[in-house]
Amino acid sequence: MGSKFSKIESQGLEPICATRSYCSNSFCLDPFEPFGPFEPFELEVLLSVSRCLRGESRSTIPSLLAPEVIEALVGLLEAKDTSTAAHTWRVVLYTRALAEKAGVSHDDLERLTAAAALHDIGKIEIPSAILQKPGKLTDAEFEVMKSHAALGHERLLRMGEDDPVILDLVRHHHERFDGKGYPDGLAGDEIPVAARYFAVIDSFDAMTSIRPYRRETGVHAAEKAIAELESGIRTRYCPGTVEMFVSMYRTGEIAWILEYFNDGADVPKFTGRADTGVRSSVRS
User: Is residue 52 one of the residues assigned to a domain?
Assistant: First the structure.
């Protein structure tokens, strides 16, 4: 059986976009290991990414910041995990709202937007049976799932991304204040600032959206999620991060996002820019 690399090279795609590896303890495969053939949708999306990286993208934004590249990568992940798309765009909105509240520069806002959109890109490597399992994961399955943070970081490095804001958020958004997170067991101030805040955003949206193992959404789910976030201050979450998020939720600055991009809605194209019509159309 030929490798996926040989198949992709025959289609004109750089091998850098085709690696699939599991790097969690015993789940370690050489990225050049032979695999079965790509699914048609995977090859189509990867070819789209390749065209963007080769300068055939319509965007003037360089590298992975090009909206077409981000949309293609997220599209590939969405095809494996149907709950991903709405989650991705909601956390992008939460991230932009918090970043704007903090007064970050326009350039940093765009970098954080890209990082939020790509945060789960390592799940491309995770088997669909694990991603969509309706029940509790076994210990072995959870180890595979945990590998997505490091795998996403590795994938972006191989694709040529060198922005520390993007790379750090992708790798470290599952670290914990008490050092019991993954993949590196960072604690407290060792965790990059953007990853500290994004951990709260990611957890809140996970607790308020439809998943294979949970169906509760809406305001009641949000109140339960907020209680869970507050109980995790100084263990799971860094001080100040939960307080800022909850304050913005209570004042209505981000509460509207809870109803936006609901799990049955079509997902628009990623533009990397705030849509001025978004808020007014939320309840239309």
Answer: no
